[in-house]
Structures are given as C-alpha cells and as structure tokens.
Amino acid sequence: MLRLGAIQASAKRTRAQTFCRLPVLWWRCMLYSFVLICATFFLVRLTSHYSPRSSIPRIYILTATYPRLVQRAELTRLCNTLRNVINVYWIVCEDSATRSKTTIALLRNCGVPFTYLNVETPFNQRPRPNEPYWSRPKGISQRNLGLRWIRETLLFRRQPSVLYIADDDNTYSLEVFEEMRYTRRVSTWPVGLSGELPWEGCVTSATDRSRISQMWVAYKPNRPFPIDMAGFAVNMDLILNHPEAKFDYSRPRGLQESEFLAGLGLKHWSELEPKADGCQKILVWHTRTADPSLAAWRRLQSQGVVAPPIRDPV
Question: Which residues does the Swiss-Prot or TrEMBL record annotate as the active site (predicted)?
Fold first, then answer.
C-alpha cells in the first residue's frame, strides 16, 4: 500500500510538473515561430532586390532630382506611373549635400522598391541666376553616382535587366516600359515635345520597321546619336561591361547622350534597336512643369501674414 501510494504521489507530481511546463513550452513555441517568421521576412526583403519577382527582365529606373517647389509633385506623378510597372526598381539620386527626409518619406510611401542616393552638384557647375535652365548640363553628378551604385551592386549579381534614365518631369506611357524590357543592347523610340519639334527621334521605312533609316532631329543632326535622354534604354550587361561609361560636365549640351552611348561601345545610331512599332508611336513626352506663381504669397508675407500650420510640405 505504501508503495502504491508513493507511485500515485509521484504520478501526481509528474502531471503537475507537466502541467506547469505547458505554458512555458507554449510560449517557447510562439517565440520560436515569431523569430522564424521575422527571419523569413527580412530574408525576403534582403533578397528581393537581387531576385526578380518573375522571370521577366527587371527595369532599373535612374532618376536625378533636385529640391524645388514642384519636386514632390513631380516625384509623386512618376511614382504613380512606376507603381503600375511590374518588376521595376527605382534609383533616385538627389542633388543635395544631405539626405532629404521628405523625399525618402515619399519613396517609402510609394510602394516601388527603391534606393535613395544624394550628391551635390559642384558649385562651379551650377547655373547662374541669369542663365537659362538649359545652359548647363543637369544631373551629371547624380546620374554618375547612380551608375556607380548599379555597378557596385549588380556586378556579381547579374540578372536579365535594363537601365532607363527617367527624368522626374517627363510624362511616360506604361507601354514604353514594356517596349524597353527586352532590349538586347540599346533600344530607342521617338520622344514627343522634344528638340523644339512636335517629336524627334528614330525613323524606319515602311518596308522595314526593324531597322532605323534616319533620325528626325533639328538640333545638331550630325551628332553620332542625335537622341534625347528619354529616348533610349540600355541592356544592363553593357553598363556592367563598360565601367568607364559615364556623363561628363565638359561635354556641351546635346552631346551627353552621344558620349555616354559611345562609352558603351556603340559607334552610330544605326546600331540602335527601334521600338514602339518601328518608331511609329510616341510613348514618352519631354514635358516640363512651369514654375508656380507665388505673387499672392509674397504679398501676404510682406504684410506680416502667417500661413496656417500644415503637417505636409508642398
């Protein structure tokens, strides 16, 4: 009887100990599950940049931007365009000595995978107050920094992809991104409202839409590549295989594109691949937002009027 009682007491203690361990085991399981979920999430985030979400080539968009009143509006419009493009990665490089919290917040809220970079344009390369906006090349330092980031990031993680240099003030049809996606070397298409013409760019003959027969431009038609920055895309292998190709402040206006493409090993515009139904469609427009008029605001400021507080910047 004593032995039976001891066995029963031992069984009770074992059940009690097991019962006491259950909450601990449950919490351990929950903790391990949480850690596993978090690790999986961060691993996906870490590798999503290098592994496309589908088998189609990725489009890297390189955008040089600079602080101004309409900057946020321009980037918001481009963001809303890129949100409708699959397998795209946005590299935004700002003309600034410091990182812009406003720009970074906009990019985070956009929903498009992105990298934010910043570098300031050298003082001696900035346009003077009395100079027209087109007198000096813009975005040189920013585009070169973006190219350096691409080469450092993708050199040993190559994947089918193309590079497109997209200014933040242009207007883009969604179709242009699908046209450029399968670029073999360098593809091109006409650009609307460019070069003081209704459109400029490549021309093909009615009998052969697969080859460019001429370039329709008014400004310096004898350039090796009389083409607007918005009118071409480059296969990423060319970018990675020609690390010396970049933009240069010493090149005059209109020759930045030619120098860049020549640095990629191309010799003549006839080597470009015509897109947009054999250069028959306008899918991008070289638009420019007018500076907003703030005459009323300046008048109110001179009268000592203080605007109501607002959380969001313009």
Answer: 257
CA distances for 28 relative to 20, 24, 36, 39, angstroms: 14, 6, 12, 16
Q: Out of 179, 257, 259, 273, pick the active-site residue.
A: 257
Residue 223 belongs to domain with CATH number: 3.90.550.10
pTM of the prediction?
Answer: 0.81
Is residue 266 very low, low, confident or very high in pLDDT (cuts 50, 70, 90)? very high
Rounded to 10 deg, the angle between the 71-82 and 101-110 helix axes is: 20
Q: Are strands 232-235 and 186-188 parallel, antiparallel or unpaired?
A: antiparallel
pLDDT band at 27 (very low <50, low <70, confident <90, very high): low
- Beta strand 273-274 pairing with 186-188: parallel
Binding residue ranges for Mn(2+): 169
Identify the residue with better confidence: 14 or 102: 102
What order do you get walking across the sheet with 208-216 strand by strand? 171-172, 284-285, 191-194, 197-205, 208-216
- Find where tokens 């599950």 sit: 33
Q: How many domains does the chain have?
A: 2
Judge if 46 and 107 occupy the same domain: no
- Mean pLDDT (whole number) for 234-248: 97
Catalytic residue at 257? yes
